[in-house]
Amino acid sequence: MNKICLFGASGHGKVVKDVATSANIVVEAFIDDYPKSENLHEVPIVMSEKMTNYEANKFVISIGNNKIRKVISKKIKNDFTTLIHKSAIISPTATIAEGTVIMNGTNINADATIGKHVIVNTAAIIEHDCQIEDFVHISPNATITGNVHIGEGSHIGAGAIIIPNITIGKWATIGAGAVIINDVPDYAVVVGNPGKIKKYNNE
């Protein structure tokens, strides 16, 4: 049976562990240098200096914060793997890069391209020909329609809808339930229906 270790013993880590379990992958340990307990869901939590004690040679960063995932991915030299929940529906022509987690009930359709260390959360839909860059988080029940491009590190809120042929810049934030009908620039925070820019994230 395949084994992995997860970086980050958090609430998000619990969900990522469930994704691994659904795919018959054993989580040997959570790696966390600031642990709040000795184990999480009966899996030991260990400091990063001890991760070589485990058989697993594949890892996933189980942290929801996009910026922190990027920082860790640059510091850690281990091999990353992809986790896909058994209930997800993935087109055979879709491409999913290393470190990405695809959660339960998701749909990823034809010729979609998903970058590294992306989170596609519960019941999200990514339609045909979308391009999702590295470190993006697509929240539960978000709908990304066809030919949408989402830049690095952007966060798409729960239940948001992005209409076809839209470009979302890098490190943007789309609020929960927002409906995006226009392109969104880098670092913008957009809320509402139709979506409007409220401010800009700190670069």
Binned, the helix content reads 10-25%
How many strand elements?
25
Q: Gap between N and C termini, in Å?
A: 43 Å
* CATH level 4 superfamily of the largest domain: Hexapeptide repeat proteins
For the sheet with most strands, the description reads: 8 strands, mixed
Protein name: Acetyltransferase with multiple hexapeptide repeat domains
Active site: 128
Family: Belongs to the transferase hexapeptide repeat family.
Binding site for acetyl-CoA: 137
Short description:
Keywords: Acyltransferase, Repeat, Transferase. The chain has 203 residues and is mainly beta.
Key structural traits:
single chain, 203 residues, mainly beta, Rossmann fold, UDP N-Acetylglucosamine Acyltransferase, domain 1, eight-stranded mixed sheet, globular
Give your account of this protein's structure.
The protein has 203 residues and is mainly beta. It folds into 2 domains: 3-80, 3-Layer(aba) Sandwich (Rossmann fold); 83-198, UDP N-Acetylglucosamine Acyltransferase, domain 1, CATH 2.160.10.10. The protein is 11% helix and 33% strand. The protein is built from 2 helices and 25 strands. It has helices spanning 11-22, 66-75, and strands at residues 3-7, 26-31, 39-40, 43-46, 58-61, 79-80, 83-84, 89-90, 95-96, 101-102, 107-108, 113-114, 119-120, 125-126, 131-132, 137-138, 143-144, 149-150, 155-156, 161-162, 167-168, 173-174, 179-180, 188-191, 196-200. The strands form 4 sheets. Strands 7-10-13-16-19-22-24-25 form an 8-stranded mixed beta sheet, with helices on one face. A hairpin with a 2-residue loop joins β3 (39-40) and β4. The longest helix is centred in the N-terminal third of the chain and has 12 residues, at 11-22. The model has no long low-confidence stretch (mean pLDDT 93).
